[in-house]
Every structure is written in C-alpha cells, then in structure tokens.
Predict the 3D structure of the following.
Amino acid sequence: MIKILNVAYKNLLRKKTRSGLTIIGIALAAWVLVSLLGFNKGYESSLNRDIDNLGFQMIVTAKGCPYEAATLMLKGGTGLRYMPQNITEQIAREPEVEAVTSMLMQAVFDPNKGESGGYSAYLGVDPATFPQMKSFLEFKQGKWFTDPDALEAVLGYEAAELEQREVGDPLLIIEKNVEVKVVGILKRTGTQDDGTIFLPLNSVQKIFGVKDELTGVGIKVKKEADMVQFEEKMYKLPDVQVVSLSQVKQTIMTLVSTAKVMVFSIALIAILISVVGVINTILMSVMERLQEIGILKSMGATAWDIFKLIWLETLILCISGGMIGAALAMATAKLTEVLIRQLLPYAPSGGLVQINLSLIILTFGVVILIGLLSGVYPSWKAGRVRPLEAIRSQVE
Amino acid sequence: MLGVSMMKKINVMFVVAVFLLIPVELLFAAVGCDLNDPDRDVARLFPGSTGYKTNYVAIDQRGGPSLLEQIEDRLGDKFKGLFETIDVPYTLYEVFKGKDKIGYIHGVNEKGQYGGIQVFVVLDLEGVIKSFYFQKLTSRYGKQLRDPKFGEQFVGLSLKDFYNYDVQSGKTSGPSAVEKIKNPVPEAEPDFRAALRGTKKNLILVDEFILGNKYLQYHQSGGEQNK
C-alpha cells in the first residue's frame, strides 16, 4: 500500500503546475464550505445567546402603529404608545409565568449632543424584578439602584464609555433638565444592554410625566409551559401586541436566509467546479500515461491495482486541497466575519463564524467523498486499459 | 386590511426593531473619536479638499507604557478613569488636495460635567489650529460653548502655546495665548476646562503621531515663556 501511495505521489509531482492548480481549486471549495458551515453554526448560536441574554422569552407591548419604532428615532418618546402598569400584575397571575418585569423606554432630543443634535434613550426598569431576570449582568463598578424612586442610573459599558461616566458622576437628562447620579457601570455583555442607560421605572415615569404607564413587559415563561398556547392567551389581553422571542429569532433567521441561500449556491458551484477540475486532471493524467499503464498491466498489475493507483492520486489531491482550505478558513475567519457583517441586515453580537474540530472533520469527510466519487471514472477507465492496445497506440 | 398573520409579522418586526435594533442605533454610536460623517465633515472643514486618509493609532501599539508616560508628562496630567486608557484607538485624518497634503483633523473624548465631550481640532501642516469644535457635548451650557465665537478663540494657537497651561489647575504659568481663551459661562467651568485639556491632548497626540515631535523642544524648555 505504501508503495502504491509513493507511486501515486510521484505521479502527481510529474505535473506540478497541473496538480497545484487542482489542489487550489479544491482548497477554495473547502474554504467556502468551512466558512459557510462555520457561519451557519456561529450565527445561530450568537443569535440564541443574544436572545437568551434578554432574560425573557416574551415581550408584551402596547398595540399601535408598527412604525412607532421609527417614530422613537425621529421624535423621541413623543410618539410612543403606552400600556397601563397594572397589566404586569395581570400577566404575573397566569400559571405559565415564572417572572415578569415592567419596562418604560423614553428618548429625549439634545440639540447640542451632535452637530445636528442627537437622541439619548433611557430604559426605566423595575429594580425589584429586572436584576433577577438579568442575573447574568455583572458590574464593572458600583451596583443597582439604592431605591425604586432614586434619581440614579446604571449604564451599560458602551453607554458609560460614550458619556465618559463613572460611579458617582452626574448624568444630565437634558430636555427635562434633571440630573441623575451614576451608581453602576455594567461589564461588557456583547448585547444591546451595553449601550443602554437604565433608570428606576418610577423615576422614569416621574421625570417624563407618564405615571402608571409602560412601553413593555418582559415575561419569563416556565420551562414546562406551552408557549404557543400562552401566546394565544396573551393576545386576548386588550390593546397589546405579543411577541415571543422565538418569533423574533425566526424573523431574523428569515431575514438572513436570502444571504445564506446565495452563499450556499456559491459553495455548491465551487464544489461542482472543483469536482470537474479533479476529474479533468486525473483523466488527462490517465490519457497521457496509457503506455505506462499498459506496461504495468503487461507486467502483471491487475485492473484493481491500476484503479487503486489512480484513485489514490485523486485522494491525495483532495486531501491536500481540503487541508489547505480548512487552514485558510480558520486563518480568515475574522475577515469573513467582517464581510458578513457588512452584508447582513442584522448581525448578533459575538462570533459570527465558529470553526471547530467537528466542522473541520465534516468538511474533510465531504472533500474525501468528492475525491472518491470524482476519482471513480478516471480510475475505472485506467483499469480497463488493454495492455497491447495501450502500448501500440503510444508507439503509433 | 392587512391579514392577521401579516399584522403578526409586522409586530414581530416592530419588536425586533425596538428591542434589538433601536438601542443599537441610538446608543451604540462610535465610542472612539471618529468623525460622525468623515466625507461630509472633511469637505466642510477643508473646503476644496479632494480626499483624506484615515489612520488609527493607539499608544500601546506605538510605544507602550513609556510613550504613555511621555505623553502624560507633556500633558501635565495622568490619563485617568475607566476610559482614558493606553489602548484607546485615536483616529487621525490626513487631508489632501490632489496629491498635496493640506492638513489634519484629530479628536479626543473628554469627561465633561454631565457627559462625554468630543473635542476636535483642525490643524494645518505646522500643527496650528485652523478650527476647533465640539462634535458631541452634553452640557447645560451647550449653546454657549457651541457658539462659533468660543471656538474662534483657539484659531492660530499651537501646542507651543498650550505648554504653559496646567490642565489640572486650569491656570497658565506666565503669559500665554491660552489665557486669552475666555469661558463664556462661569458655571460651565468643568466643561470649559475639559475643552482646554482635550485641545492640549489633541495637539500632543498629533505632534507625537504625525509631526515628529516638532513641539517637544518647547515642552523641554518650559513652554512658550522660555522659547
């Protein structure tokens, strides 16, 4: 076997450029395949992590125009719709509910913030329930609010960095001319919490004059609960809209599916091109060596020996290409991630391309399978060569 | 009328936007000190310019702790707090007219009284201030500090003028052009001093990163008064 391997290897070296180009073709296909599978895995796990880090699986918001999202950006809090605060108690009474937390988002326009002004958004949260629901949040400095009515703020790391705030510093809510004291800076989480300014819910209601009103309720559902049934139940509440985060995930996955289909198509084309390339290279090599194969057969080599020899050549090409492609994919994972982030409508935080051992093994499996399949025809053709005809054809 | 399923989809999109995208858009603005819109800003600050090159430089990559010490020495103050660290990436814009370089733009984050302040200086090739402005400012006195008359006081000054200015006490030792920069509102003193500290830091970093420390001699000789 080692001898055949040696002969196969030496045969490939006889046409270095051709073998090299074929390996490059396979490497590119393997590179695309590894990167794509890594993206498939990375994107979904990052998205799951982002959603898990929200701390709740369902959000209930006030029913209203879906374009309120744009209104929030354009007009601050003035266009928001609200729900009565007592809805939280109503939801908490449902048997499927493990915990609930009330939220009130407000935004103010500061004409001096940027060159043409800028918005600051504040999320009022219930100090009694929100920290429990987001127990994974850790503090870089300080802690949560001292009092539910305190004029205090906890800043996500990015928000604190942008505002250059530390514990003890004042923070001005400019439009309302209200100063709050920074009592906590969160560690980076890689989620939207990093950019959020948290205030006690009561304080936000007081500062913005929206007493007993909320913009959202986060719901943590019991593990054994039937989400679909519970969702239907929530829809029966008056004037609310319900979104479970599994739907959010589904929507985002749909948004990126177009991009995925496109890249999968490219990968498929790359694989097909490399298969044709391998068949072409090996077939040419067989045609050029007809006389040699004829001599081998006349010396006693069986059709199976020739088949094995040619098949091994194909495998060597594919394994080399697969190794180079996998290494290339690992080396350029960060770059691939940057490119993907440019392309996608929404990209979760964290690693978008996750390449691990099982993925490399899977790719190798695919590449070897390609090698075995594409090597069958040339090997079979070589094995069928008749010694005398082959020797005579070369002489003529 | 939209169907129920369609409404449901729209609702999902709404919540995606509110809970995942909006906070990112509103609050995840660039934390480094980049120009908000470099194409627009460079054209506005250097009318007639045809292009620019963006350079990212961090003190830890450029010279490490020893460079930080030198910069702190020139500034007359330590880098402090959670966010003024050795690894902060600074963005330096080199501006061109055709093939000729015509100036620089550089900005830094400073801690203001009520929030972060982004102080930008526009410099000619000699490191002399052509323009000064706040890209971001959270202050009760934002209107007065953003008044063009305030920024005009910095025009024509260079690092040479700032060496006599002590950023910690807010005072100058000896006659200095910086003395002539007046705070428009006495109550805005912390933001005013942050603006001066930011300007001095900007000038030191540009001198270190691109001007080959041409102003270092004035620091070593004790500033303008000893030149």
About this structure: Residues 133 and 194 of chain B are 13 Å apart (CA to CA). Chain B touches chain A through 47 residues (CB under 8 Å).
